[in-house]
Amino acid sequence: MTTAGGGAVEARLAELGLTLPAVVPPLAAYQPAVVSGPYVYTAGQLPMVDGKLPITGKVGAEVTAEEAKELARTCALNGLAAVKSVVGDLDRIARVVKVVGFVASASDFTGQPGVVNGASELLGEVLGEKGVHARSAVGVAVLPLDAPVEVEFQIELVQD
Question: Is the pTM of this model over 0.85?
Answer without folding.
Answer: yes
